[in-house]
Write a structure and sequence with these properties.
single chain, 70 residues, 3 helices, 77% helix
Length: 70
């Protein structure tokens, strides 16, 4: 992937993460970005990528919750 294509993908990802952020539990932006960008580079649509990122975040947050329990 060239720099221009990566820049465009990062900007698209930023735009869609912005819509996810206000209602999301505390998380690091890179987890959502990575899942969204991976889906887009596999050829998934924006909607499919948003779903993939949301599912990835559910898995990560569930795992963290389980690890934090006494």
């Amino acid at each position: 992937m060239d720099v221009a294509a990566l820049t465009a993908l990062l900007r698209e990802t930023e735009l869609h993460h912005g819509a996810y952020e206000p209602s999301a539990p505390k998380h690091h932006w890179s987890d959502w970005y990575a899942a969204f960008m991976a889906a887009r580079t596999r050829g998934q649509t924006v909607e499919e990528a948003k779903t993939a990122a949301a599912l990835h975040m559910q898995k990560i947050l569930r795992t963290r919750s389980l690890l934090e329990r006494p």
